[in-house]
Design a protein that fits this description.
The complex is a heterodimer of chains A (247) and B (230).
Chain A lengths: L4 E4 L4 H12 L5 E4 L10 H6 L7 E4 L2 E4 L1 H12 L2 H7 L5 H16 L1 H17 L8 H7 L2 H20 L12 H11 L16 H4 L1 H11 L4 H9 L2 H9 L4
Parallel strand pairs in A: 1-2
Antiparallel strand pairs in A: 1-3, 3-4
Helix pairs in contact in A: 1-3, 1-9, 1-12, 5-9, 6-8, 8-11
Chain B lengths: L1 E5 L4 H12 L4 E5 L15 H6 L7 E4 L4 E4 L1 H11 L10 H14 L5 H11 L7 H22 L12 H11 L15 H10 L5 H4 L3 H17 L1
The complex binds glutathione (2 copies).
One glutathione binds next to helix 1 of chain A.
Subcellular location (chain B): Cytoplasm
Family (chain B): Belongs to the GST superfamily.
Organism (chain B): Hondaea fermentalgiana
Chain lengths: 247, 230
């Protein structure tokens, strides 16, 4: 059987969430890195896979799919052992699945524009060799930084209250797809310079203690270290840029 | 008993309302005004509603029998479809279901832009968009219409030849802008989208679920008349 191909980048949150889900689903994939600096996401071949110019994209035989949440559910259903499926997105429990969906959908308009917006503004545009072909160029210019900061803080507050009522975001007893997708947005904040992170020196452990404790649980989840390693490799470069006063 | 919180002027609330109608479900619509913090009529930013729905958005669905509260229209629609076994709207086949999910997720940053660009500036003056952002969003509508036109040149509906939840989710923000409804966007250059909008309008319960269109159109006409006077 040929392995499913995943196009994406280890610097991209939705890609890492897909890679993490693939790992937990015990499916071997063929990873094809996309470099936006080189315009890999704008080639005619890529546009045939996703005319929307975004990654991750999965190609499984003739079947092509984009949108990370859709891909995560697909890989899980097709490849994961029954116990893993039951844990991450339980086929036997419609209400639990729907609560997981609620948080996945919520991420699109709340947590992601906050966390990802901020990281792109503070770090990525300096870190990546060339962002001119990335759609973030427009956002950086037209979306007010204050809105991103407010969205992040509001989102963290909503999550902190939610996690206070249970250990995981969708009220499940163990990590679900929602925790994986949301935590992947949160863990990217590790790249923010310490004294300004996240917005203006707010201290996670004090200001959002439940999110902090939850983050520790997620960091201990199988596969996290493997998936994040490509991303955290950028840390020394971030520090170097920072000491040169560029961040 | 199912309770739907929201107003039918809200695109995502209307999507859920339509699916509840299609399910022939027994439900009650409870008015909640988006963005308001008032107690009466209840606003989505009032503390009573926030206690139930922390992000303060409509729609939300409550199942009073099980105590389940869901928000986010896509999550609610797939819940209803699975609960009422509406396998046409939300196919059980792995590939087809994944494609429905793809479009529903895509919706958040694409079809939804029609609302930010064209609807919100009229109905939500409290949300402040800069002129440049509005212009960028209007340009994005063109891009989204092109993407849809391309997809719909290959199949009559977004996922193959069947009407699914993907069409409902994408229609509410895009279809309402058509000339025959709120006339906020001209799809003449996007023939496949234009034809798809008309096709979607033939689905059951469409009329019952979209009676608000003429009411909204009147508001738009009034706002535009006042603008012309200035
Ligand atoms: N909603 C999409 C978001 C995908 C997305 O934003 N991908 C980014 C990388 S993190 C991308 O492709 N950026 C390239 C560009 O926008 O130019 C998903 O969850 O897959
Ligand atoms: N992604 C959400 C969007 C919900 C949404 O944006 N709702 C608007 C009304 S259309 C709202 O309640 N806004 C509250 C506010 O602006 O404070 C969904 O699909 O349900």
């Amino acid at each position: 059987m040929t392995k499913p191909i995943v196009w994406g980048s280890v610097m991209s949150q939705p890609t890492r969430a897909v890679l993490w889900t693939a790992l937990l689903s015990r499916v071997e994939i063929d990873f094809r890195p996309i470099d936006t600096g080189k315009g890999d996401h704008l080639t005619p071949e890529f546009l045939k896979l996703n005319p929307n110019k975004k990654f991750p994209v999965v190609q499984d035989g003739n079947f092509v799919l984009h949108e990370s949440h859709a891909i995560m559910k697909y890989l899980l259903e097709k490849y994961a052992p029954a116990d893993v499926r039951e844990q991450l997105y339980p086929p036997s429990d419609l209400e639990a699945r729907s609560r997981i969906d609620t948080w996945l959908d919520w991420k699109h308009n709340f947590l992601r524009p906050g966390a990802c917006g901020l990281i792109r503004r503070r770090v990525m545009r300096h870190l990546l060799p060339d962002v001119s072909k990335h759609s973030m160029v427009w956002d950086l210019k037209e979306i007010p930084a204050e809105r991103e900061e407010r969205m992040l803080l509001d989102s963290l507050k909503v999550m902190d209250d939610q996690i206070a009522a249970g250990s995981y975001i969708a009220g499940t007893n163990s990590a679900s797809l929602a925790d994986i997708a949301l935590f992947t947005e949160i863990s990217q904040l590790d790249l923010l310079p310490q004294d300004v992170s996240p917005p203006h020196g707010c201290d996670f452990s004090k200001d959002f203690p439940n999110v902090h404790a939850w983050s520790q649980r997620l960091r201990a989840l199988e596969g996290y270290e493997t998936i994040i390693s490509g991303f955290t490799r950028a840390q020394p470069k971030v520090e170097a840029l920072r000491s040169q006063g560029k961040l | 008993m199912l309770k739907l919180y929201g107003v039918l002027g809200s695109q995502p609330a209307r999507a859920v309302y339509w699916v509840l109608k299609l399910a022939n479900a027994d439900f009650e619509l409870i008015e909640v005004m988006p963005g308001s913090d008032k107690e009466k009529p209840l606003g989505s930013r009032n503390k009573e509603y926030l206690a139930k729905v922390p992000p303060g958005i409509v729609p939300a669905l409550e199942d009073t029998e099980t105590g389940l509260v869901l928000w986010e229209s896509n999550a609610i629609m797939t819940y209803i479809a699975d609960k009422f076994k509406m396998n046409d709207l939300y196919p059980e086949d792995l590939g087809a279901r994944a494609k429905v999910q793809q479009w529903m997720n895509w919706h958040h940053h694409n079809s939804r832009v029609f609302t930010f660009a064209l609807f919100a500036p009229i109905f939500r003056p409290d949300i402040k968009f800069s002129e440049k952002e509005l212009k960028g969003n209007r340009k994005k509508c063109e891009m989204v219409a092109n993407l849809l036109d391309d997809a719909l040149s290959r199949s009559p509906y977004l996922v193959g030849d069947k009407f699914t939840l993907a069409d409902i989710a994408v229609f509410e923000d895009v279809g309402e802008c058509a000339q025959q409804h709120l006339a906020l966007f001209d799809f003449a250059k996007h023939k496949n989208v234009e034809a798809w909008i008309k096709r979607v309008e033939q689905a059951p319960e469409f009329k019952e679920s979209h009676a608000v269109f003429p009411v909204l159109k009147k508001v738009i006409d009034k706002v535009q008349k006042n603008k012309a006077k200035l």
